[in-house]
Each structure stands twice: as structure tokens, then as C-alpha cells.
Design brief:
Length: 135
């Protein structure tokens, strides 16, 4: 069994996660082809190799190309996954992540999980981050 451990002592973003995973020798073109199966428009992916303070890494940036109505609910986000051409494994992982976030939001706001409205995390940027990580 192989284990990948992230020591996120000060946090991590979806862009950083995708960059770190791409640094594991994932083919960038294959990654982008899989991500296109999400079937969403309104964004583009910029991938660059950068060196900062002598340390090389892959920088991934999700750039929105149009305004996003980003206040979606769990059912809407799961529908996006269900209507996509993503693999079943990627769909399942992505749904699991959003269900965990929805469960936490539901507890905090004292409402049923299906009534939770995601604000920033419901945006295309966050959806692409999570799906990209799943890929």
C-alpha cells in the first residue's frame, strides 16, 4: 500500500493540492482531458512550473472567465457531477468531499444538510479544485 501524507500545518488550497499531485509525474495533458469531462465552462486552468526561494513546484491556477453564480446547494453540485462524463471514482470522491463540507455547514447553521447553501465553496473554482484533486 502506498500512502501520501500532506502535512498542512498552515493550510492548503485546492490549487496547491493539484500542483503537488501533478508534481508526482501526472501527465498534465491527461489531467486536463479528464478535468474537461466535468462539463463546466467559465474557467481555464493555468499550469506553470515555478521556482520560489530555490524550491521548484507546479503552480496551478483556476482562472474564472465569466461571472459565477457560486451559491449552490449540495443537490445542485451533485447534479453537476452526475451529468458529467467523469469516472465513477472521481464522482464518488468529489461527492464525498462536498457531503463532508455540507455536514459541517449543517451542524454550524442548525439546518438539514440538503438546505445548506455553499457560498465560496459552491463556486466553479472550488468545484474544479475538488474534482481536480480527485482526478
Amino acid at each position: 500500500m502506498k500512502i501520501l501524507y500532506f502535512d498542512c500545518f498552515s493550510g492548503i488550497s485546492g490549487d496547491m493540492t493539484m500542483g503537488a499531485l501533478l508534481d508526482l509525474d501526472i501527465d498534465r495533458e491527461a489531467f486536463l482531458m479528464e478535468l474537461s469531462k466535468l462539463g463546466l465552462d467559465g474557467y481555464k486552468i493555468e499550469i506553470q512550473t515555478k521556482t520560489v526561494n530555490g524550491i521548484r513546484g507546479t503552480d496551478v491556477n483556476v482562472v474564472l472567465t465569466k461571472e459565477d453564480e457560486h451559491e449552490r446547494g449540495l443537490i445542485e453540485i451533485e447534479r453537476i457531477f452526475d451529468q458529467s462524463n467523469l469516472s465513477d471514482r472521481v464522482k464518488a470522491f468529489s461527492k464525498r468531499v462536498f457531503r463532508e463540507i455540507a455536514a459541517a455547514e449543517a451542524r454550524v447553521h442548525g439546518q438539514p444538510i440538503n438546505e445548506v447553501r455553499f457560498h465560496d465553496v459552491g463556486g466553479i473554482d472550488s468545484i474544479v479544485d475538488i474534482v481536480g484533486t480527485a482526478i
